[in-house]
Design brief:
The protein has a single domain, classed as Trna Endonuclease, Chain: A, domain 1 (3-Layer(aba) Sandwich). The chain is 38% helix and 28% strand. It is built from 3 helices and 7 strands. The strands form 2 sheets. It has a 5-stranded mixed sheet, sandwiched between helices. Strands 2-3 form a two-stranded antiparallel sheet. The longest helix has 19 residues. The protein is globular and about 45 Å long.
Length: 123
Amino acid sequence: MNENEIANKVIGMAIEVHKTLGPGLLESAYKECLYYKIKQAGLFVEKEKPMPLIFEDVKIDCGYRIDILIENKLVVELKAVDSLNDIHLAQILTYLKIGNFKLGLLINFNVSLLKNGIKRVIN
């Protein structure tokens, strides 16, 4: 499966989670539920994946962690905020860049209709 196919499946799963839970919960609740759904679907998934920074050939652990990484291809960054802003976009772009990933999903669960809280981000 390529990144777009994985992303489409994950968006569907995120919508299911949102329909069941609704807005207003902590980010960690959505993360655990989405992680469960992805794992249940048989995809290789990692949560809180450490993302070291390489600087002048030195691997530096700065505490960066990808919320969810699927099939070592798709970065998913979850939020439960009033609205997404530039710093959220910068965060996922950083993960895409330092991990050399092509596609990410920035998902804000704190919206009434989840499709309004999803952004595809391309590196």
